[in-house]
């Protein structure tokens, strides 16, 4: 049997695209494709100065790659959407250095599916064990405190645990399709009053002239890409130190050229509306219909049976993150409904 060798890479471009794709393409995860990860690196979105040092691991049999592990050395915990700052604090209290840490995930993308991508015909457990040993030696040699694999594929997670990894349970809210064949099937899961409210809201969107137009990457005009980056930068800037704006304008340009997958662009009167989390100021709370959408009880003006609960009722964005505020509003309204 040909001897196996391992190699560490400071850039994904050190691994031939065809070799990488031969291992990852079958998984159907665009966020682990060679071009996606290369675009993040080339655009400067994922780079040492941003706290992300590519440190990919590959396993070779002669001149053929039989496994790859996307890995990064991190100098912080931003852009992961998993908050381990308490671990960093504990390490400091124990006199240990938490950073840099080795991280396995698709940068800036909280997408389930991380694994060691292995060639067909190879033993996944043996490959996992071998690469884990290499990672352990690398961390010991460079005095790296920990290696974390985030958003692991459930099947690969079992292999990692068998290889000695400890599991950290992290709570997230995910919507899943319960075999809905169409939107009416989805509506059927609600009660009559909820269905009526949802239909009313959808009609309001239609009356507002908002449409969803699917565009392939090569069909996106340059001005649309500029607008997309502007909205992204504007959204991140609202949160000050929490904004963590990683994606550069160059990444948006490259994404359109290299990833001809369908994107959804919201349009209204020929102007794109940003799609993202924590919409603020779109259904402002106030005393009258002239200046607001909902009253101080979060009810639509003139419709006491319809409430809007979320950050959209806030008139302005502060420097702090609004998630806690949205949670408190939700808890208070639920408490009212239960007690009433």
Structural class designation: alpha+beta
Number of helical segments?
10
Low-confidence stretches: 262-277
Determine the mean pLDDT: 83
- Please summarize the sheet with the most strands: 4 strands, antiparallel
Write the H/E string, N to C.
EHHEEEEHEEHEHHHEHHEEEEH
Helical fraction equals 25-40%
Q: Report the C-alpha radius of gyration, rounded.
A: 24 Å
Question: Which CATH class of the largest domain?
Answer: Alpha Beta
Tell me the number of structural domains.
3
The appropriate CATH architecture of the largest domain is 3-Layer(aba) Sandwich
Distance between the terminal alpha carbons, to the nearest Å?
73 Å
At the fold tier of CATH, the topology name of the largest domain is Aminopeptidase
Number of strands: 13
Beta strand %: 15-25%
Oligomer: single chain
Strand adjacency order, main sheet: 1-3-4-7
Gross morphology: elongated
Q: Nutshell version of this structure?
A:
The protein is α+β, with helices and mostly antiparallel strands. The protein has helices at residues 17-24, 34-42, 85-93, 124-141, 154-162, 183-187, 192-207, 222-237, 249-258, 323-339, and strands at 4-9, 52-54, 56-61, 64-69, 72-74, 101-104, 117-118, 147-149, 211-216, 262-268, 271-272, 299-300, 303-307. The N and C termini lie far apart (73 Å).
